[in-house]
Amino acid sequence: MTHTPLPSPGYDVRVSTAPTHPEAPSPDVLSSPPRSAFRRSTGDMAARLSSSDIALGWLVRLRWHAVAGQALTVGVAVRVLELKLPVAPLLALVATTAVSNLLLALWLRREPEVRPGLLGAVLAFDTALLTGLLALSGGPANPFAMLYLVHVTLAAIVLGPRWTALIAMLSVLGSTSLFACHVPLPDTVNPSGSHGLDSLHVVGMWVAFTLTALIIGFVVARVAAALRDRHAALARTQRLAARAEKLASLSTLAAGAAHELGTPLGTIAIAANELDALILEAPQEALEDARLIRDEVERCRDILERMSARAGQTLGEVPERTTPSDVLARLREQLGTADQARLQLEPGPDVPFWCPVRGLVQVLTNLVRNGLHASEATGANVVVSAHREEERLRFIVEDRGTGIPRALLPRLGEPFFTTKPAGQGMGLGLFLTQTYAELCGGRLELSSEEGQGTRVTLELPLRKESSDAPR
Hints:
The protein is about 60% helix and about 10% strand. It has twelve helices and ten strands. The protein has helices at about 35-50, 50-80, 85-110, 115-135, 150-160, 160-180, 200-280, 285-315, 325-335, 335-340, 355-375, 430-440; strands at about 5, 5-10, 10, 320, 345, 355, 380-390, 390-400, 445-450, 455-460. Helix 4 packs antiparallel against helix 5 (about 150-160), helix 5 packs antiparallel against helix 6 (about 160-180) and helix 9 packs across helix 11 (about 355-375). The radius of gyration is 34 Å and the shape is elongated. It starts with a strand and ends in a 10-residue tail after the last strand.
């Protein structure tokens, strides 16, 4: 039996749950109105994960490598190759890069939101520093002039066309100015002027080309990967926002329906009671009809109350410290005596974790009742087990019931869609379970074979501190 993610239109429940992931739900998602909370979360994530933020973070790291490389190059040129270069001015420019990068790193810690103009200014500043270094070490004859391309490439990846054109123009102006003003390198080519393989200039060109290719390839690959992660995180946040808005709308609808229908249902109930009292000597069929009306009114009230409670319970709960055995014990208490007799619990490792406990118990109860209903004809037990896999907890509900037809699997998780006969289910159980899983940073998986049974897995992150748990 293969495991498949529970599908629903537009939603993928296989979501990342690492607490440090940028796509993890905002901590206040569960304690504030979902519409505003998720819009705020989406806005915050867009600011945190803008392309400028990503590129500037990598640029800080790249500049530290550049500082080390520049200092090493000056040392090799002076000590090993014994070139007569203005060491003090060169090291001063290297130190300027280091100090500016330190200030930039400290500033980023205090101001995580980055404007594209800052990245452009840093690239322009680095272009000027590179021009100064090249002017003091051979000018246009220095093979490392090829490093201008790194700045232009980075600008083209993460900045707009205006900044790219500006950085390209500064690079052209800088390289052109080297012809007019530079400290020449000692003659390192052959007297005939040919650049043989042993020429220092040719070797330098090879080194410069290799470094430029590696740097550009590394930067492009890392920034592209970070941008892909950013788009995936934003897409997931938007899915969560849409699901939370559906849940909020459902709760509002249920509460409104309960309020609006309360008066007419109450009137019908009173009328049914009066009819029941007035027609004691009426035919048996009339008595049964009156009692049926009264019973159906009570059933309508019960459905509205349960729909409102189940939709609202998923939101607004404060996380609590609990264990798998405690969760399963609470689950058993939610069931009647007959259902408890068919429930088989396997708590597994008793590891403490933080989560919205009442919501977890409620969604597990929904899954168990689905399993009990599916296996009612055979009387088979429903098995609920808990397992720990690294930093994740898996609650598995298995039944040996009728199973679910493959054609219906894509619709599972839609609100108000149910495979139960009319009047025996509202189609909210899997929707609320899936919503709970996503809000907690987990996922829901379902595998089913018609005639063999169903296995539902609720996977949650193992949050060991209250600060890690969604609120």
